[in-house]
Design a protein that fits this description.
With 378 residues, the chain is of the alpha/beta class. Helix content is 45%, strand content 19%. The strands form 4 sheets. It has a 7-stranded mixed β-sheet, sandwiched between helices. Strands 7-8 form a two-stranded antiparallel ribbon. Helix 7 packs across helix 10 and helix 11 packs across helix 14.
């Protein structure tokens, strides 16, 4: 059994703990005290989570001697709009306690990104912690200090690096997720295996049913292994600056095309994980075309994603009834805003083999278009 563990995240500015376990909310007091978290807490969350998960969180905060003032934001990527960002700042400022408050994020990845950006820019930085409530946020977005908001032109175009004081990932929170949300999070889990650990991919393939059923022990081990991989990567490249070696850029496997699909389809029309799943299938196909992997690696990538009920083609995306696949033109347009594109260079994260990825420059544009058309772009 592996029902509790901890990973330390090292950055140039702070070292902080990521606690992973099942039913570990009772440890919140010791976690808050260990990092000297402020007594006044601004809780950024959604109304739905305030009804379902906050009662237990509220009791834990009260037992920890903290007062919590809720600040409600929309669900999904709507939380990361510039309008929401300004509204949250103004709401905090009106309390008159912005200088003595700590920010606590209770929610998924988009909400955590917003909360971190608020914390990093309020009074030039106030402490914040994260209670991630989705699988995607527990394995990925809560780790590494990247915080941002979206613009209409693309995702995460306004942001900074700002590390939390702590992350407490209680996999018991995941019981509230829909099957689609679970699958969406598993896309990032598969990504970690593909880019960094072939043995981990075998583990996931063998534990697919347990993961989809939210088996506690399997979840704790899976979240722990993903956090450990990301901790190692961000420790080597905390500010995503090693462009030539592409150390941290490897974490964006599938994201160049995936983010563009999200933007072209409309945020919250499809899930992040669904878009990234198609992006990873496209990136695996590009890897084959570049002569880096054999067709067998593409097939295994697709099979792993499908095992977790994830799409590998655009027509398989689960938007509203009758949703048309995003058109090729808008996808290519939004790809131009990807930070890995520099001048005429077209950098993609590709597979060198299952379990290892690297950044490849100047992938031919026509191959990108061919791959997207082959996978259903209109």
């Amino acid at each position: 059994m592996m029902l509790q563990t901890e990973v330390r995240i090292h950055s140039p500015t702070i070292e902080y703990p990521v606690h992973v376990g099942y039913n570990i909310l009772g440890q919140l007091r010791s976690v808050l005290d260990s990092v000297r978290f402020p007594k006044h807490v601004v809780l950024i969350t959604t109304e739905a989570l305030h009804r379902t998960i906050f009662p237990a969180v509220g009791r834990a905060l009260s037992e920890a001697g903290r007062s919590a003032a809720p600040c409600f934001v929309p669900e999904g990527d709507a939380a990361k709009s510039s309008d929401t960002y300004v509204r949250v700042l103004e709401q905090i400022a009106k309390t008159g306690r912005s200088g003595e408050a700590g920010i606590l994020a209770l929610g998924g990845g988009a909400l955590g990104d917003l909360a971190g950006f608020v914390a990093g820019t309020l009074r030039r930085g106030v402490p914040y912690g994260i209670l991630p409530t989705t699988l995607l946020s527990q394995v990925d977005s809560s780790i590494g200090g990247k915080v941002a908001i979206n613009l209409r032109e693309g995702k995460n175009l306004v942001g900074l690096f700002y590390q939390p004081a702590f992350v407490l990932s209680d996999v018991a929170f995941l019981k509230s997720l829909s099957p689609r949300q679970v699958s969406s999070g598993l896309a990032e889990v598969v990504k970690y295996a593909l880019i960094a650990d072939a043995e981990f991919l075998g583990f996931l393939e063998g534990k697919a049913e347990s993961l989809l059923a939210l088996d506690a022990d399997t979840l704790v081990e899976t979240v722990f292994r993903c956090v450990k991989i990301k901790a190692e990567v961000v420790g080597l490249d905390p500010y995503d600056q090693v462009a030539v070696k592409g150390i941290r850029a490897r974490l964006n496997f599938g994201h160049t095309i995936g983010h563009a699909i999200e933007a072209a389809a409309g945020y919250d029309v499809i899930t992040h994980g669904e878009a990234i799943s198609v992006g990873m299938a496209c990136a695996a196909d590009l890897s084959r075309r570049m002569g880096l992997v054999e067709a067998m690696a593409v097939e295994r990538t697709e099979n792993a994603l499908r095992r977790f009920h994830l799409p590998v083609r655009l027509p398989e995306l689960k938007g509203g009834d009758g949703m048309l696949p995003p058109a090729l033109g808008p996808i290519l347009h939004h790809m131009k805003f990807d930070k890995k594109f520099s001048g005429a260079a077209r950098r993609f994260v590709l597979l060198e083999r299952i379990g290892k990825a690297a950044v490849s420059e100047k992938v031919p544009n026509e191959w990108v278009e061919e791959v997207l058309r082959a996978r259903g772009a209109a």
